[in-house]
């Protein structure tokens, strides 16, 4: 049985996935740029893990966006 993700966590997952795809990156490429494992990024994009501040900053840097940009998209996607 699959767990239903917290709406805010689901919004964050959606935001990272949207920005990654918009940048034309695969999960493997983004994970490498951000210093993460591909499995960790995949869990994040499926809303199975709540990333810490360092991870969010690394993702933002790898995506060439501000953490605030990720947060704005996450809030939009979460409906908050």
Structural summary, described in words:
- This protein is an all-alpha fold and 80 residues long.
- It has one domain: 434 Repressor (Amino-terminal Domain).
- The chain is 69% helix and 0% strand.
- It is built from five helices and no strands.
- α2 crosses α4 (53-63).
- The radius of gyration is 12 Å and the shape is globular.
- 28% of the residues are buried.
Major pleated sheet: none
Assign the CATH architecture.
Orthogonal Bundle
CATH class: Mainly Alpha
Oligomer: single chain
Tally the beta strands.
0
Amino-to-carboxy terminus distance: 27 Å
Give the overall shape, derived from the CA principal axes: globular
Provide the low-confidence segments as ranges.
Answer: none
Name the helix and strand elements from N-terminus to C-terminus, one letter apiece: HHHHH
Provide the residue-averaged pLDDT. 93
Portion in strands: under 5%
Detail the topology: elements first, then pairings.
Elements: H1 7-22, H2 27-34, H3 38-45, H4 53-63, H5 67-78
Helix pairs in contact: 1-5, 2-3, 2-4
């Amino acid at each position: 049985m699959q767990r239903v993700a917290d709406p805010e966590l689901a919004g964050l997952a959606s935001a990272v996935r949207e920005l990654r795809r918009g940048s034309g990156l695969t999960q493997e490429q983004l994970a490498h740029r951000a210093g993460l494992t591909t499995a960790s990024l995949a869990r994040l994009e499926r809303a199975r893990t709540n990333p810490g501040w360092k991870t969010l900053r690394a993702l933002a840097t790898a995506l060439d966006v501000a953490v605030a940009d990720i947060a704005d998209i996450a809030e939009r996607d979460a409906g908050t």
